[in-house]
Fold this sequence. Notes:
Elements lengths: L1 H6 L11 H5 L15 H7 L6 E3 L5 H13 L4 E5 L4 E5 L7 H10 L11 H5 L46 E3 L2 E3 L7 E3 L6 E6 H4 L18 E4 L7 E5 L2 E2 L3 E5 L2 E2 L18 E8 L13 E7 L7 E9 L3 E11 L4 E12 L15 E15 L5 E17 L16 E18 L7 E17 L2 E20 L1 E21 L2 E19 L3 E12 L3 E15 L2 E12 L16 E5 L11 E16 L2 E16 L1 E4 L6 E6 L4 E15 L2 E16 L2 E4 L6 E10 L8 E11 L23 E11 L4 E8 L34 E9 L1
Parallel strand pairs: 11-14, 28-32
Antiparallel strand pairs: 1-3, 2-3, 4-5, 6-7, 7-13, 8-9, 9-10, 11-12, 13-14, 15-16, 15-40, 16-17, 17-18, 18-19, 19-20, 20-21, 21-22, 22-23, 23-24, 24-25, 25-26, 26-27, 27-29, 29-30, 30-33, 31-32, 33-34, 34-35, 34-36, 36-37, 37-38, 38-39, 39-40
Helix pairs in contact: 4-5
Amino acid sequence: MLKKVADAGHDNEKFKSSDDTYKGLPGCCHYERDLQPSPTEAHEHHAKKENEFYVKGNCGSCKARIEKAAKAAGADSAEWSAEKQTVILNFDPSKTSSDKVLKAIADAGHDNEKYKSSDDTYKGLPGCCLYDRNIPFGEANPKVHFEEEAKHDDHKDHQITPAENHEQPEKNIEGVTVTGSKAATALSKKEAGLVFNIDKKELLKAACCNLSESFETNATVDVSFSNAVTGTKQLKMLGLDQKYTSLTKELLPEIRGLASAYGLNFIPGRWIESIQLTKGGSTVTNGYESITGQINTELLKNAKKPETSLNIFADFNGRAEANITSVSPINEKWSQTFLLHGNGTFGDTDMNHDTFLDRPKGTQINAAYLLNYNDLEKSGFGSHFGINFIRDERTAGQVAFDKKLPQDEQGAYGVGIDISRFQVWNKTGYVFKGKPYQSLGWMNQYVYHQQDSFFGLRNYAGKQHTYYSNLIFESIIGNTNHKYKAGASFLYDGYEETYLKDDMKRNEIVPGIFAEYTLTGLKYTLVAGARADFHNLAGTQFTPRVNFKYDFTPQTILRLSAGRGFRTANVFAENQQYFASNRNIQVLQNSGNIYGLRPEIAWNYGASLQQEFKLFGRKSSIVADFFRTDFQDQVLVDLDRSPQQLTFYNLEGKSFANSFQTQWDFTPFKNFDVRLAYKYYDVQADYIDGRRAVPFMAKHRGFVNLAYATNKNDNGGFWSFDTTLNWVGKQRLPNTSSNPAEFQLPVYSDSYAVLNAQISRNFNKKIRAYLGGENLTSYYQKNAIVDFRNPFGNYFDGGMVYAPIMKANFYVGLDVTF
């Protein structure tokens, strides 16, 4: 065969083509004949070290797999080079051997100079990892390529540099360079827990003006309106309210306490670099409050060169906003980020003609500054500093409401919400010299939050001071297969609240300690942790959590999780959606120290199966997961005792939430991505008068997301088309049977579907324009406000919301990068 190759004009290691045949080749095929090294010369060009061995592979995924297999076999460290096609091993000969390590690497699918992988294992590798098995060891691998991956480190900032999707091959005289792409939302295959990494590309599929709108193209998180008067949105996950999900920013506590009702509006979408969404029990190093999972938001802070962006947005119903973001390196070690956001809603939107605004009017100013220091490679130090100030003013209620008049002179029903918020935080880390596996991290944050508000003739005001500190040490036991983290935390919450004439004050002081162990094997990862928190009002709380991942094959992954979480309920701040009503609030105290109530405690268990396969010659994946949450104690919000009453009390009996979800992602043809999902929820609780389904929770939900983009032109321009359909099944509504017939709600709501769509045009790498529509089906809840004609009467209620309030709404926007 090599003789035939030479006869065709191409020199090789055994035969040389004749001069006439070589000269007869096309000009573009005239290779440099004198530069072709012999096999001996090729081996001499790279003199191997004593602990260096030939191992075949193609890409970054191969590198991770090879190094993981080596460490699982006892190597202290392993460094695989794609260019050299070798791995350098460091190990203790008393614990393992090169033979044992290389055998493990072969078992993982990678041929090496001592062992060959089985055909079945090799064929089971992802397509991008299928190296050429016939190339002799020591020769260059022409299939080498690299893909960008999101990396997660609890002590450092998330550094996610999204590769642009739909990349057009870049052509030159000598060949073709293909640039890969990364999914806009990717399920991490490395994490023991079920973790989704969401990057900016996903967020650009919709309007995404703030965090509450960042999940419209995500099937895991449910976004719902919670009040017809204030227009607030809330997230739900695993069938439970937002308060049971830990919402963090830069891995620091963020949307909690008094910020629960409106905090989603305080993180602008254009500020977000990435989101990490964890379903089920998260790491104990981040605190004790997570029950259904964690949503962490990372702000823009990574740039190799200065980049300033301007975003302008407006919808057709009087809302406008502007964002300015600037990320720039100061020098080799320092970088900074300026973030500025302003929005205003000025139009009187009343699409259902009930005399009430469908969303509040008002303005927000939001500014942040981030400063980053990175000298990890030399001194081992890195630090991140941030400061943020927010001023938000909203007015809602009847269109005729005049906020200039005193409350007692108003003829119309009005709502006013004024919020001021200030934050400052720092995260500093140190990596020990000569020990890249050992580090120390310290996080600190102070938050001041103030809210002054009124709902008709009812006043609610609150102040919150929070200081949080978290110290984490990370190292290994023997080798990197055995990692551990240990540390201590401190949380102080000072609350002052006023509702009507009742003044409520409390201080929560919570020192805590924790430890977490990670065991990494060839096909499995186990993360087990526990923490003890000494709460001055809730007593000592023990929080164990465990996550386990087993890779049957690189394409088939099983995950199991279990864990405990606890939290103190802020019953007034977390239920403001019911303040715009004439329900009287009643707290049935039960020997607790927080509003007379005990803390909430729950156990969460989960299992998921991830399967990747080829469909239409392209990558496809299905994920199915089941989670159950069992409450040991819970503060129930009872809307059924009376339509004129809102009652809080501790659970006596059982309360549980079963959640099943299956999601299928595939690409039928180039640049066209499809995401299909189905969710089933069974959420029930034992209320005072018996067990029943929790209201406003649909048992069945369906989801479809379609995304298509054209190839990029020579200027980097392309079109993008995105559409999302959410189908929501019927929901149980609170009991209103004691109301007059005209003010009664049905037992169950109707099912409905909401369609959103967006078209965007990237003219080049710096200018992007977009046009979109929300709720294009124009389905809205009729009579969303009970007895809207008499807002000061006994039957008025603006909290009975289960569907959109506004009909179709259209928007336009422009992104410019300087």
